[in-house]
Amino acid sequence: MTRAVTIDGNLSPSIEDPHPPSPNRDGPAPRSRGPVQGSELSPRFYITVLLALVSAYVAISFVMTSIRFTGFFTENWDFGIFQQALWSTTHGHILFEAGDYELLGVSSFFQVHPSFLIFVLAGIYWIAPSAYTLLAIQSLVVGLAAIPLFLLTRSITGSGRKALWVAAAFLVWLPLLSSQMYDFHLEAFLPLELFGMFLFWCQRRFWSAAGVATIAMLTLEVGPALRLRDRCLLRPSPPP
Hints:
Layout: H1 43-70, H2 76-89, H3 98-104, H4 117-127, H5 131-144, H6 146-157, H7 160-171, H8 174-180, H9 190-202, H10 206-219, H11 223-234
């Protein structure tokens, strides 16, 4: 039963609605949705912010390590030996450096740390023979490690926002910058290599993961040990 309102404001007599609405015909009324908490933004936004953070870290760490170098705070271990080993290699004396020769009696840095990556660095040093070349390379490879870490976290969590937080936490981690401030080390390459290996493994790109693992093993003699440890971490757990 319904009543219509006339023009003068009075109620008209009751009339039957030929099609009364059924309370369950259309189902419950849809609820209004409020703003979604923690919604994801455009992937391009996260990539842009990530590249900005990486660039900032590379620039800041390079400036700080350069100031330390110009202030005569770098030492023979482990900056002078690398610089001399690279210079000697480009002048016909393979990885000779006086520090380990005086201390251990060895005539080549390769006898102390069998690293094949240092020959690649020697080629770069031959093009730009400067201490700042080593500092720039170290800042670059440490900063770039945040990119595979971001991609790995996004692959696992499915969230670009969480991946960006993890990458940012890596770049602002004080021990990371503090360790980089101490001269030059080949270990600076390992985060980039190991994060890349984990990323390819999680993507089931096993040949790519094996290639990056091989590069890590050629970077430093500790690389194979880390590779074996990572293999244990990546091995699927047995069913209960």
